[in-house]
Structure formats: C-alpha cells, structure tokens
Amino acid sequence: MLIVNRLRRDKGRSNLNRKSLHRSMSQNNLLLHCPSDKAPDHRHEGKIITPGPNLRWVSDNLELRCENGEIVRVTFAIDTYSHEIIGWTAGKVGFTGDSLRDFMRLCIKRRFRQHRTPHAVEWLSDKGRVNTSYETVAFAIGLGLLPRFAALSCTASKGVAESFARTLLVDYLYAYGRRDAVTVLAQLDSWFEGYGAHPRRA
C-alpha cells in the first residue's frame, strides 16, 4: 500500500485507500482467490453408492447426554455398503489422536483378523484436527486405509453415520435408561448388538 501511494504521489496523483486499491485490483483480475472450505452449493441428484463391502468406512463421534448432566462420548465406524458397525468405543473423556489411531487398528483387526487391510479401504471422517493430523493420516495409510475428509458442516457424504447416530439416540438412548454415564456405558454393548441385528439401509 505504501509503495503504491508513493508511486502515485511521484506522478502527482492522490493517495488510494485500501478499499479503492482492492476494487481496482478486483476489476483488473489481480486478486488471488483463496480456496474455500465451504461445501459446493449444489443439489445431489442421487445417492452416493458404494459398490461393495469393505471399500468405504465412515467414522464419526457423538455425545450421549445423561439425565444427570454427564456426557458419554461414542466413536464408531460403519461400512457404507452394508451399514454394519465395524467397531466402536466409548468413554467419558474426549477423543485424542492416540485413541483414534488405536481405534483404526481395532476396526481393521475386527473386520479382517489382521493388522493391515488386504486392500485399500477409504476412511471417511470430518476435517477435525484429530482426524487430519499428520501422525493420524500417516498411520492410517500405513494400515492400508485411505483417509478422506468432509467439512464439519457437510452431512451429505456422511449420511450413513448421521442415520446411525439418530437411530442410536431415538431407538436406544431415549427408549432405555440414561440416568447417568455408568448406566449408558453398561448398555452400549447391547445397543450396538441390537442395531447390528437389524441394520438400517439408506
């Protein structure tokens, strides 16, 4: 800005303020456009279909609020083709990078009975710091997972996870006891088993 105004003064012109300079640069296509993190403004005209099982898993977190004010934090991974729960974990503390990496390993072990996927599996999650950290991404790739990220506000790509979260809240949490965290944690295993026996298809 200072250099521009100095050059203008040397030529006998008046100074520009920031808005005038910005408008002039915009009219002459001299501005750099930053990529936006917002989801594209368009309608989806169909469904995102996964061609088979164990090709794309979606991971998400939800908070279960108890009647006494305690919160149980649940993390789960679900197959977008079969809608089967791959794995889940729960507790009263927040999720960390270490616990996420342990969870990834747990899901692979449960599904494939080995420490690495036999083929590439997409791991879809939101763009939260824990999911996108270098350590987590590198660890996931080392396990055979392909990390994919959706914006925190974007539910279109994570419809299966959103649907499961609603089912867990309505059909289980609100229907059964949620007096406190101990009560909820004691029932979670049976809730996940109940959902697994009758997975909802989108």
UniProtKB/TrEMBL annotation:
This is Integrase catalytic domain-containing protein. GO terms for biological process: DNA integration. Transmembrane segments: none annotated. Gene3D superfamilies: Ribonuclease H-like superfamily/Ribonuclease H. It comes from Paraburkholderia ginsengiterrae. GO terms for molecular function: nucleic acid binding. Residues 49-202 form the Integrase catalytic domain. It comes from the Bacteria. Pfam families: rve. Signal peptide: none annotated. SUPFAM superfamilies: Ribonuclease H-like.
